[in-house]
Amino acid sequence: MKSHKLTIFPFLNTKVSKAADGNRFPLYYRITYMRKNTMLRSFEGGVYADLEGPEIKEVIETETEDIRALMGMLTELFTMPYDMTGIKARYEMAQMHILEVIDQNIRDVVSRNLKTIDNEFAQVVNVGVYSEDYPLHVLMNAIEKLMPEDSGNAFEGTDDFLDYLIDWIDVYPMGGAQPRIVDWLNLNHIDKRFMKYLSGRYDSEEKVKEIMEGIFNLIITKINMPM
């Protein structure tokens, strides 16, 4: 199958307002794929006088690889067309931490389950969103205390995801450095510690594969959400 060319051109956007500290401008990327074009602003968010300094070169190198990894996923390794619809939102979403993706998926399942439970507390439980200030175990404890007879129903369908979360936090504790979605997609950036940890914890290669594929499927579902 034919592979199509992706061009990523970094530039300073002089058409936007200058920064307060002088003649410095934000970094952008012009992306071209199969005659479709768009622009993305650097997620790093800095402003620069030129493209020559070591700091901006490092940013460009990292973000170019990130954009290439994301586009590679969206185009099935550059073999399928993509009209750039939603690319800005997907690029921003790709910066999410994988821990957040797993955690929020569990909360989404719990939220759906609570709507089906005939219990006065089911409608008032604050499921919330991923936050270090409201970790998942606090939600779990609240549900178990408020509605112990229905807590199993509230968390129905989350067992695998909870296992993913426990394994993930063992390697990347909350509050520490967290890999992003795009790091998982980018083979140049991905940290192999998680797979190494799984291989040491589980004797079965099938179990390791199941967990890796499970998390990958969560990521793909998230990044392909309708925009």
TrEMBL record:
It comes from the Bacteria. This is Uncharacterized protein.
